[in-house]
Amino acid sequence: MAARIFILNLGVVVVMTSMLMLSVVCTAEDNEVTQFNDRPIVGILSQELSTNRSDWKTYKSFIPASYIKYVESAGARVVPIWINKTRSYYENMMSKLNGVLFPGGSINFDAKYGFGDAGAMIYDIAKGFNDKGEYFPLWGTCQGFELLAFLGANRTDPLTNCNSGNVNLHLEFLPDYSISKMYALASKEIIQILSSEQVTVNFHRFCLTQENVTRYMGDINWRITTLNKDANGLTFISSMESRKYPFYGVQFHPEKPLFEWAPQLKTAHTSSAVKASQYYANFFVNEARKSHHSFSSSEEEKESLIYNFTPLYTGKEKKYFSEMVYLFEW
Hints:
Blueprint: E1 9-16, E2 21-27, E3 33-37, E4 41-45, E5 47-48, E6 61-64, H1 65-72, E7 77-81, H2 87-94, E8 100-102, H3 115-131, E9 138-141, H4 143-152, E10 159-169, E11 172-173, H5 188-196, E12 200-208, H6 210-217, E13 222-229, E14 235-242, E15 247-250, H7 256-259, H8 271-288, H9 298-304, E16 312-313, E17 324-328
Parallel strand pairs: 4-7, 4-8, 8-9, 9-15
Antiparallel strand pairs: 1-2, 2-3, 5-6, 6-17, 10-12, 11-13, 13-14, 14-15, 16-17
Helix pairs in contact: 2-3
């Protein structure tokens, strides 16, 4: 597929608005006020559904439930974001959300009106928000990581074929990982786990290399934080972040050790794997807490949440890798 291609707290004042709770924390270091949204809501982008099942013919897109639970485990709620919509739809949705997660999968980014086109609009809108001072984070997991690379390369394919399927790996940290936003506040225990234990779950046939970041994306724009090697010895990027925007990507699946149990997969479920996975969820949701977008009313918020949909248990069928999925008719 061409496109798969910190302080001493002086005081805390809680201010309630109609849909947004802000914790106002005065710090001794800079005497500035940093506001945190205690009710973050994250959007998760759906993706095209391809199936031969006759009873699924009315459904057009889906989201694996593990991503929903992953975000919820860190203290945020979730709103599904549909594909095949206009830019105004994404602008409207993102003005009410506090971040967007691009999930894993196997979609062709060049497909018209699908995951790639929707992701491109979301990426551009998020850059616009941040450029005008409205903090808005993006997170990409596996396919989502690849989408960030694709968009960071101006929709040029920066990926290369590789062999890293159904394998757990430890991360190889680059020297400046400690100054990255993704890892700067990680405990010594988390870094030790990630660097020495095989806890990151990999399921990908495409990789992003350092050479292709330099060639297509620009080293000045992206900080590479960790590397790995595939089964053939190819060195690939396993985590990275934008230097300018709060955009983060991991090539592995931190949601799987927590919520995916397919026995045919070699997913790590050790206590260390769970701790490491939870770190990433907590990190991204804490980034979302820095966004102060909100819905105009409680009613609008409630109508938008994932709670309005019922997941389907697919884990009992061996051909499915996801324990549960949400199916959508649009």
